[in-house]
Design goal:
- This protein is α+β, with helices and mostly antiparallel strands and 355 residues long.
- The chain is 24% helix and 34% strand.
- The protein is built from 8 helices and 21 strands.
- The strands form 5 sheets. Strands 6-7-8-3-9-10 form a 6-stranded mixed β-sheet, with helices on both faces.
- A hairpin with a 2-residue loop joins strand 9 (211-216) and strand 10 (219-224).
- It starts with 8 loop residues before the first strand and ends with a strand.
Length: 355
Amino acid sequence: MGVDAPSHLDAQLVGVSKTYPNGEAAVTDLSLDIRHGEFLSLLGPSGCGKSTTLRILAGLEYPTAGTVSIAGKDMANVPPNRRPTNLIFQKLALFPHLTVAENIAFGPRIRRMSRAEVRSVVGDMLDLVELTGYADRKPAQLSGGQQQRVAIARALANRPAVLLLDEPLGALDLRLRVQMQRVLKKIQQDSGTTFVFVTHDQTEAFTVSDRIALMNQGRLEQVGRPDELYNRPATEFGATFLGDTNIVRGTVNDRVLTADGFTCRTSGPGTALSLRPEVISMRHHLTTPFDNRFTARVADLTFQGSTVRYQVALPGDGPDLVVQLPAHEAVGIAPGDEVEIGWQADAAVMLGTEV
């Protein structure tokens, strides 16, 4: 028998694993606290186990080990329809023959609410998703973004403790997807409902999340705020998956990393250094003092609108590095130029051996 979750958590997974009959391990020893009222994203590459984790929360998959608690209750042997959750997939499955209001009312009617209660819930949900004037329209008469809002309203009408979303924005074009990310976050904040959101898109996770649970090969790599994961990744996978970075592997002694004749000062011990391109300063002549300062040669550049990315080569056996500058700071720096680059020791993150 499982143990109920603490009251400040809306869901909790403890030591959860899922292994299929063919021996494939989809999730391995995953423990995760999901806090009341937060927007938590399960982020990772395809096949990392994030959708399986969501399905375990929904009761569509049962773990082969571990416990799951939702709304303070152990979910062992509790079927999906008895769980205080709702699940939204990429395919919204709105009822095409029903109006927007009738779609939203479907769940409350199944739960045998009175007509007055149903009307009240439908009105509240239409206000929440800002579709008050669309109650009598059919799904085919709505845009893709409006259909997304109806699906969310229909799910929230059931008053779930946790709303589960499995890449619901994946089928939208980029412009609408970016717009819906903001809408989704606002709906979550206005409703106060706990959202657990699956995505493989780092920018999307950064945009909507209070916290991110980063997954890789069925395991939980790191959990934290978006800025924590980006600025202080715990593993090399996290550093490279969450954005561009320069990885330099070597040996550290007395806060000095040595790698094939290249040396630089570090903030502490580790086996590899992660250095984001935007934390490196670069000029023809640097005037600011830095813990690490080198002469380099510009090998290539890529103009990216508001920023410019440079490939720079350090002399001798030093590593090639990627440097990113704001476009206004990049004026006059061209391939072939000799430049100076520099960074502070604490701007780089020291990484240990990955598990």
